[in-house]
Amino acid sequence: MAHGALCMMRLASGDSVLEHLELAGEPTKEFMGRVDRDTLHLISIAWAGTFNNGYKEISAPNAIFDGTVTPAVVYVDSTSGDDTAAGDGVQQVTIIGILEDGTLGTVAVETGGTTGQSSVTKFQRIFHAYASRWGSGNDPVGDIYIQDDATGTVKYLKMAAGTNETEGAEIFLPTGYKAVLDTIALTMTSSANANSAILVKASGININGMGADPEYLYNEWRTVISSGGVHASHTDVRLAQAGAKITFSETYKGSAEDGLFHVHILIWN
Fold this sequence. Notes:
single chain; mainly beta; Jelly Rolls; 2 domains; five-stranded antiparallel sheet; 2 helices
């Protein structure tokens, strides 16, 4: 899943997360059953594409938005006038991130074509954005950016024309929260060469001065593949520190392969 490959991210909270736990392993369900469901979140991330030769971060954002000291609004802007609240393209974009009060959440912003539209709600961090309402079309007509102001002095995330997800698979753990790297699954989308191997690395680096440990959330997962289909799933408890930046990298051994990688991260306070 190469850097810049198609990435999808969604955030679920509260009882919606418990529906996921019905499909998780017994150790995970028992562990999370002790957590206050009002503070429970699930971030689901999937990437589709071709694995790289050599570790590279999967779907890195263009720039990191840092509002941890002074929370700020972000703007949604398109290069096409058809991406408006009443247009044929994308009419609304939903942004995932850490809100001003330090909680995980989503904010929906109606598009305004080439005029940047404010989120109104302030963020400490933003992770990802996706199209959540359309006109007569099914995709954005232009490139849609999540940026720092109406003119886009700094562009953080990009949703390319014809796609409905921004790049960006980094997440930040809110202060006071904990995280578990839960289900991992790999699906090959083309016939794979025998004895090839896919390696995916998840790492968390603390950025808020709370005892930085770059391997505090570190997990390297390997599977040998020989054909299409789902090849493995994995559940492992790996706690990250509050304030950690969690990223994902991947590589292959043997031949380049096409596939889909899916991970769940459980977060709670």
